[in-house]
Write a structure and sequence with these properties.
The complex is a heterodimer of chains A (470) and B (65). With 470 residues, chain A is of the alpha/beta class. Helix content of chain A is 39%, strand content 13%. In chain A, a hairpin with a 5-residue loop joins strand 10 and strand 11. In chain A, helix 10 crosses helix 11. The two termini of chain A are 24 Å apart. The relative contact order of chain A is 0.14. In chain B, helix 1 packs across helix 2. Chain B contains 3 helices and no strands. Chain B starts with 5 loop residues before the first helix and ends with a helix. Chain B is elongated, with a radius of gyration of 17 Å. Chain B has 65 residues and is mainly alpha-helical. The chains are: A alpha/beta (470), B mainly alpha (65). At the A-B interface, helix 10, helix 11, helix 12 and helix 13 of A face helix 1, helix 2 and helix 3 of B.
Chain lengths: 470, 65
């Protein structure tokens, strides 16, 4: 354990610090050593704050020595997507426009993790303004996949996926508006939780789409995601859209097996036109779910293409509205891909936008009816494993737009429905690329998908594979 | 509902205060057009009393069960 603490899980390292088997300084130094080795290859960090991190780690150790423990994650070093405001810190949002923006407030999600005792390692790279699914960034360069450096990480939480996979941080906040947590989790072989719309406060998180944005963690295990969600979830006076529904005991939920639960496999859409290796992983995962006691049945879902279209219409308008002032005043400061996506919102009338929003309730009701007999639905996160950075680079590859459109096919419908979805490492291609599958739950029922995910990870070891530097 | 033409996109963008030239309007039409096509079966069919907040009601109905 002491040889490289950064390889431990979040919950394991938190326990080791609490039990004084490891100091926060030892753990933080271990992460910093690993960051120094990997960062030149990955470009996962936006800022590395080594001196401050070690100082905070020493303070955590001193407090523990005096009998003070601030919370469940006392002394655990973390880094997050660079879109969570922390007072006094530069928060770039992956952009040139906010390259020097200093936040004056701290996001609620981040504050709750700080209150639990975490230590800040720095900030993580991301797609510009979280508006890109691959991990490209015109201003700060692409983030690389630790399992295959020429391949994308997925986005927009590109640094979060890359850094968690490479064991540079024990977990990281991401955000998911169209797949931005689940895709990096899938491509990088980590566990990512897209939360129900309203489950975690968005106060102090950079907005992209007020209807679709969600805050959630990427971590090494479902258990780690459960701990982080338990700390962050719940009502927040600073965000009136944050739900006041009670926060379940996620830790208790994940201790259970998946026996007695029913998992639905879509009869269409999510199983169409899959890469053969993704299809094989789905088949093998279904076998594992059955072996672990789940009842697996086929489900007929409503038309997912309509959901995806509605999601695109809502996102395009809301993103353009947030960015309108800068689109007028500073168009030259956007990367070309992001500007093109923002301009799409200009084509949609107010009536069409509101129709797309008004349909959301009936669409969710139809989904709930179709899935009434299952506890969760399992589906690929994306039809394909990670493409290369070159083939998905709009501007240099003629087929890039088609590649990108295909990536988000299976994530956008879930965002429109506002449902929780857990991406879990489920296998690898023959070439060594991770493949993740998503467990889609009912609204505010993260507990069940975390339970299935944790039980799956007790039966498999895909989440334990550590990438190696070439 | 039909996908907007380049001319319509130019007009909407101008009305929004972010005018675009014809080349960009054509690019936007090609990019967002499929979303209009996909939503065409829904557009114009929604009941009069349906509000966007219905979504929140449906979300919490399920959670309360």
């Amino acid at each position: 354990m002491r040889s490289e603490p950064s390889l431990m899980s979040l919950t394991a390292v938190a326990s080791a610090i609490a039990d004084k088997q490891l100091s926060s300084r030892e753990v933080t130094q271990s992460c910093l050593d690993r960051i120094a080795k990997w960062q030149p290859h990955l470009n996962a960090f936006m800022a590395i704050e080594a001196d401050e991190a070690l100082k905070a780690a020493d303070a955590a150790d001193a407090a523990l020595a005096k009998g003070g423990r601030h919370g469940k994650l006392h002394g655990v070093p973390l880094a997050h997507k660079d879109m969570y405001y922390e007072a006094g810190k530069v928060v770039t949002c992956g952009s040139r426009i906010r390259r020097d923006f200093v936040a004056t407030t701290t996001s609620t999600a981040l504050q709750r993790l700080k209150d639990a005792g975490t230590v800040r390692l720095g900030s993580l790279q991301m797609a510009e303004f979280a508006y890109g699914p691959t991990g490209h960034n015109a201003h700060f360069g692409p983030v690389h996949n630790p399992f295959a450096l020429p391949h994308v990480t997925g986005g927009s939480s590109s640094g979060s996926g890359s850094a968690v996979a490479a064991r540079l941080t024990f977990a990281a906040l991401g955000s998911d508006t169209g797949g931005s947590i689940r895709m990096p989790a899938h491509f990088c072989g980590v566990t990512g939780l897209k939360t129900t719309v309203g489950r975690v406060s968005r106060a102090g998180a950079m907005p992209l789409s007020q209807s679709l944005d969600t805050v959630g963690p990427l971590a090494r295990t479902a258990e780690d995601c459960a701990v982080l969600l338990g700390l962050m979830a719940g009502a927040d006076p600073a965000d009136p859209t944050a739900s006041a529904l009670p926060v379940p005991d996620y830790a208790a939920a994940i201790a259970q097996s998946m026996k007695g639960l029913t998992v639905g496999v879509p009869s269409a859409f999510y199983v169409d036109d899959l890469d053969s290796e993704v299809a094989s992983v789905l088949d093998a995962t279904i076998v594992t779910l059955k072996r672990e006691g789940a009842n697996v049945v086929q489900v007929d879902l409503p038309d997912q293409r309509q959901l995806s279209s509605a999601s695109q219409l809502v996102l395009a308008v809301e993103a353009a509205a947030f960015h309108k002032r800068w689109m007028i005043e500073r168009p030259q400061d956007y990367g070309p891909q992001v500007m093109m996506r923002l301009q799409n919102g200009l084509a949609i009338s107010g009536v069409t936008y509101l129709e797309a929003l008004r349909w959301r309730g009936p669409a969710l009701a139809a989904h709930n009816a179709a899935t009434a007999k299952v506890d969760a639905v399992i589906a690929p996160v994306s039809p394909v494993p990670a493409p290369t950075i070159a083939e998905s680079d709009v501007g240099s590859s003629p087929g890039a737009e088609a590649v990108i459109q295909r990536l988000t096919r299976f994530t956008r419908p879930i965002n429109y429905l506002g449902l929780p979805s857990l991406s879990i490492p489920s296998g690898f291609t023959r070439g060594g690329l991770p493949v993740g599958l998503q467990l889609v739950g009912r609204s505010f029922d993260e507990a069940t998908i975390l339970r299935i995910g944790a039980a799956f990870q007790r039966a498999t070891d895909f989440h334990e594979k550590v990438p190696q530097l070439p | 509902m039909t996908r907007p033409t380049e001319k319509e996109i130019g007009a909407i963008a101008s009305a929004a205060g972010v005018p675009v030239d014809t080349e960009i309007a054509a690019r936007i039409a090609g990019s967002i057009g499929p979303a209009f096509d996909g939503f065409a079966a829904i557009a114009g069919t929604l009941p009069f009393d349906l509000e966007p907040s219905t979504f929140t009601l449906v979300q919490t109905e399920k959670a309360a069960r």
